[in-house]
Amino acid sequence: MTVPERDGDVLRDLLIAEGVATVVEVGLAYGSSALAIGEALVAVGRPDPRHVVIDPFQESVWHNVGWDQLGLAGLAPITRLIPAWSSIALAQLVADGFVADAAFVDGSHRFHEVFVDFYFLRKIVRPGGLILIDDDRVPSVRAAARYYEQNLGWTPIPGAFTGGTLVVDGGDPAAEPVTRCNAFRLPDSVFEPPFEDFRPFALCGH
Question: What pLDDT score does 41 carry?
């Protein structure tokens, strides 16, 4: 229910290297990844840093623990919490013309909801920006990311989370451990492929 410290450190360093000024995050829970993102925004030191966090359950399920942690860390002034379903909140951000340098996705792990998160984040994150994903090797999450990788030019960043937490791929005890998180870079320009160019994205073995 929370991003391990090792992955938070890697997440922070990736965002610092990217020189981010604006980040959108899906899922707050206990706030560990949000603290890492906030630290990166402060370290980069760009004017008017912004961190938008979406979590409909922060009060009802998590009792505002994550939000309180951000306040205690002094990050509330640069952070906006949207207590709504990501499918609604992200659509509104698109309508508002909101643009981010990167996104971190750790919300619902249901395929259809992750897929919709990615759909809107593709419109929010600037061309060439980053989409960072927790629990990427959960089959439902991996399959959703695979579609965008195969059809819309999302490029995995090899070794981005080297040094992060290792997990067993897809719950198969015979599989070799892989990193828990993954990182993708969006294409340098937005494009819509012809529908005839659809590429299947099913995962082998699932």
Answer: 98
- Alpha-carbon span 44 to 34, nearest angstrom: 15
Instruction: Output the CA torsion 84→122→146→192 (10° steps).
Output: 140
Backbone angles phi, psi at 102, to 5 degrees: -160, 160
Whole-model pTM: value is 0.94
Alpha carbon distance 103, 124 (integer Å): 9
Q: Which helix (H) or strand (E) covers residue 182, if one does?
A: strand 182-185
Residue 147 banded pLDDT, cuts 50, 70, 90: very high
**Distance of alpha carbon 60 from alpha carbon 178, whole angstroms:** 33
What is the C-alpha to C-alpha distance for residues 57 and 148, in angstroms, rounded to an integer? Answer: 27
Tokens of 174: 């015979």
The single-letter DSSP state of residue 129 is E
Residue type, 150: Q
Residue with tokens 């359950």: 57
Which pair of tokens denotes residue 16? 């610092």
Identity at 196, one-letter amino acid code: E
What angle, rounded to 10 degrees, do the helices at 65-72 and 32-44 form? 30
Q: 204 pLDDT exceeds 70?
A: no
pLDDT at 201: 85
10 Å CB burial of residue 143 (0-12, 13-18, 19+) is middle
Question: Residue 78: which of 50, 107, 114 has the closest Cα?
Answer: 50
